[in-house]
Amino acid sequence: MSAQTTSSDAPTGLPAEHPLRTADPARSTARSPLVRALRGQEPTRNPVWFMRQAGRSLPEYRRVREGIGMLESCLQPELAAEITLQPVRRHDVDAAIFFSDIVVPLRLAGVDVEIQPGVGPVLGRPVRTAEDAAALPPLEDDALDVIREAVTRTVAELGDRPLIGFAGAPFTLAAYMVEGRPSRDHMGPRRMMHGDPDTWAALAGWAATVSGQFLRAQLEAGASAAQLFDSWAGSLSAEDYLRHVQPHSATAFAHVADIAGPAVADGAPLLHFGTGTGEFLHHLRDAGATAVGVDHRITLAEAHRRLAAHPGPDGRGAVPLQGNIDPALLGAPWPVLEAHVRDVVASGTAAPGHVVNLAHGVPPETDPEVLTRVVELIHALPVGEGGQA
Amino acid sequence: MSAQTTSSDAPTGLPAEHPLRTADPARSTARSPLVRALRGQEPTRNPVWFMRQAGRSLPEYRRVREGIGMLESCLQPELAAEITLQPVRRHDVDAAIFFSDIVVPLRLAGVDVEIQPGVGPVLGRPVRTAEDAAALPPLEDDALDVIREAVTRTVAELGDRPLIGFAGAPFTLAAYMVEGRPSRDHMGPRRMMHGDPDTWAALAGWAATVSGQFLRAQLEAGASAAQLFDSWAGSLSAEDYLRHVQPHSATAFAHVADIAGPAVADGAPLLHFGTGTGEFLHHLRDAGATAVGVDHRITLAEAHRRLAAHPGPDGRGAVPLQGNIDPALLGAPWPVLEAHVRDVVASGTAAPGHVVNLAHGVPPETDPEVLTRVVELIHALPVGEGGQA
After folding, report:
1. Total domains present in chain B
2. What is the C-alpha separation between B219 and A211, in angstroms, rounded?
3. Which residues contact B86 (CB under 8 A, 6 or more apart)?
4. Which domain holds residue B311?
5. Residue A294's closest chain B neighbor by CA?
6. Could you tell me the pLDDT band of residue A125, with boundaries at 50, 70 and 90?
7. Torsion region of B159: left, alpha or beta (phi above 0 gives left; psi -120 to 50 gives alpha)
8. Least CB–CB distance from B297: residue in A237, A336, A363
9. Is A3 within the bounds of a domain?
10. Is residue B133 included in any domain, yes or no?
11. What confidence tens digit (pLDDT) does each residue in B14-34 have?
12. CB A187 to CB B237 under 8 A?
């Protein structure tokens, strides 16, 4: 645990040369549309990026990944940086998202995990008992150097365009760790949190720690924002999320709370996203997020209404939103897609800030030219007026 | 289409000897707790059954299925009846659910489909184009004789305990047909409904017809209620459900609207269930359902509140509910599970009728003795008072 304690206690803010703090305009991300929108300030254009923008939809990605395993590609700094930059070059998106995988911190901690093509993360030894959870190894701080190097390389290329850091949330990480592989219902972790709450707390607590360390390494090395992905949180009731999951996601965010999040005005904004979480967006916010991501199931205006109606313990109700172009429409005829994108931008004007994104990741079969055209459309729409202009 | 037209137009109500209409008290299901609760009448005890109660959790099921494929077992009337009856004998549940699979009507229509163990339904030729949809074969009425025979055998054994008929809803059927296999996000059908709405309408319309025929065959042969399973509807926004899916589910229900559903006071109650559909339970009701199933994501009291707040075109707001014991708690220590079951029964008293069920299917690894104990508990609780008594 020493590495983690050092990492959490030592820093007293982002380094002076961090892109959010630097005086060099060519490297400063503080005035970028993404950071401004996430701080509730008016951006110069509608910021947009896409979850999974770095990935299989791009031929240049498939080319550089040839013959290299998923986790291996995440752990080669030069390659990870290249892949992270590809969609920025191609689509002119307003941010890069660090190319990684939610199980990278597990691998760096020494957990036996691999990504099987066509399957997803598979663990050599699922975590099912108190003994399994107790045996999980700590993530040593120097194991994160490979991540820091990739981030440093990426940020140097990005200039004044922000890099968004990336981590899986404790529930989603723990879901893979209990099941040992992807599952549909996530019955394993849901069963454990009710039937064996102590083991659940140990496992989710471990996942929160490595997730927080992973976020911190990226933010310190130059990421200007970070997103916690709780992909499977939508399998939970609001009550179960609040009781058994939110405290652990809050722990992950707490690892960076001195340099990021809603309590640090000039820190890095923190995004929190899960699919099917429309019933408890306010719980995602209250885990310590600056902004909340929304999937395709409800409109941004409705998400805004719900957040405003449920202020948190810190008094925050409405917060900036991210989302929510339905990926299912990326293959529709352009007029259908265009009308949908305009609706999304218009709906987002209800919130105190809006970063346009998909409602979920880019499907691998997406035509990248469609994404480029979507970015052009969003950038051409007047800020704060959306599609109704 | 002739078989379907004949089947839809000819009958003028359930046969006189149908269990819902017979004067023979040993065979009449009209006074059963399940039917009474679904008609909003006070039952003699809290009715309970479990989705997937006939299946892999039972050793007697695994024994009779040995060496027999899933679809083959559904199409052997004697075996299907035996499997349907097993959980009634073991657990004393208040209804049998007809043992079948949502793709059985596809197979009966001649579509190349099989159930691969560990995978699920796999189609030889996915339906992706207008030509694919146009080439779908009609389901001939006499192909359903094997279903009628299985239902007749089952009902003869059940006596005054009702059999619930079973069909997959058009969206869930179409999801398998477009993807060709199970998928997580159901992007295929969601993409089609936006990008190629005519093909979607043709495919979903075909699925609605075979689904309706399948329901009708079971109801006419003696089922006292029927449930439409829209397992994957929760992947849709309420808006997409209403526009692209509900009309087709309504078509399926319309096939039996003269003998079942809310407009036929002495007909068979119709249940409508999907997971993750808390945002649009009223749309499930308004497809033509007598009662709505609720998953574990919201309480029954909240489901009731939402339905009451959104009355449909026919003026119905609150309707009887079914659900919603979280399957994830079946493996929890008994005091935890017992408290949860009491909460569910108490929460259900808000609705004008309540059939206790799981929030989703019985997980295969469930200890059947736990299910028996849950049934005993529910039957011991005072009707209409729930766990607070």
Report:
1. 1
2. 53
3. B54, B58, B60, B61
4. 10-380
5. B237
6. very high
7. left
8. A237
9. no
10. yes
11. 999 999 999 999 999 999 999
12. no
